[in-house]
Amino acid sequence: MSVKSSHCEPDVDALHVPGGGDVHVWRIQLDQHPAVVRQLWGMLNHTERARASRFRFARDRDRFTVAHAALRSILSGYLGIAPSDVRFRTLAYGKPAVDGDTVIRFNLSHSGDLALCAIAGEREIGVDIEQTRPDLDWECLARRFFSADEVAALAALDPEQRIEGFVRCWTRKEAYLKARGEGLSLPLDSFTVLPVPDRSITERWQIVDLKPAPGYGAALAVEGRVHRVCCCDWKATLALSVTF
């Protein structure tokens, strides 16, 4: 099945929850000016600030702050409320969801200086992004976490393709787990998503590979079929100027 992908410039004051086969994916630049980070800090609730404060290094704390403030500002555009008024609840295995009677479903992932926020309407969704490192010991990780078929498929790739293949496989598996919302109760080696460059489709779930930036791999897992992915860039300046 062919999935259309397009870059969108949405109106953050009037966002519509995607319906049908549409999905929105927001790309978030996590390295922001300190003055911007300080303003975004004000969007977070007590629990988020406590989590941010536990990071040892300031860069990690600031990236967490930006990622979660961006999530709040994105969701606020769909909900029509202030970012600080967005309320969350935690599902059975720890997956976060918007509190209240809403059709919106979301998932957040961050790695390095990028984050992705995926949005869907009335169907579960998961996203994962990973920064590609040339020194990654893919073989050790694959043998520890992947199924036998996945390990064999990686070994069959040309050597220069194996790290990219590993990241593709890893992000697909993580996105699928996050979409299902079952956490580590479903072991990574209990299902197979081969690392070849195509889209893996199961009866209930569709997995779509994403290319957020050079040096990164990402994947999206969605309940049902995906016909179009609208890729959006989140901008801190717009988020800080929005009023309700």
Properties at a glance:
244 residues; alpha+beta; five-stranded mixed sheet; three-stranded antiparallel sheet; 7 helices; globular
Question: Would you give an account of this structure?
Answer:
This protein is of the alpha+beta class and 244 residues long. Helix content is 33%, strand content 25%. The protein has seven helices and ten strands. A five-stranded mixed β-sheet has the order 1-10-2-6-5, covered by helices on one side. Strands 7-9-8 form a three-stranded antiparallel β-sheet. Strand 3 (88-90) and strand 4 (96-98) form a beta hairpin.
Question: Could you give a short description of this structure?
Answer:
This protein has 244 residues and is an alpha+beta fold. 33% of the residues lie in helices and 25% in strands.
Give the termini separation: 40 Å
Count of alpha/pi helices? 7
Count all strands and give the number.
10
Spans of 5+ residues with little confidence (pLDDT < 50)? none
Q: What's the shape?
A: globular
Radius of gyration: 18 Å
Structural category = alpha+beta
Share of helical residues: 25-40%
How are strands sequenced across the largest beta sheet?
1-10-2-6-5
Could you give the order of the helices and strands?
EEHHHEEEEEHHHEEEH
- Overall average pLDDT: 88
In terms of DSSP E residues, the strand content is: 25-35%
The largest sheet is: 5 strands, mixed
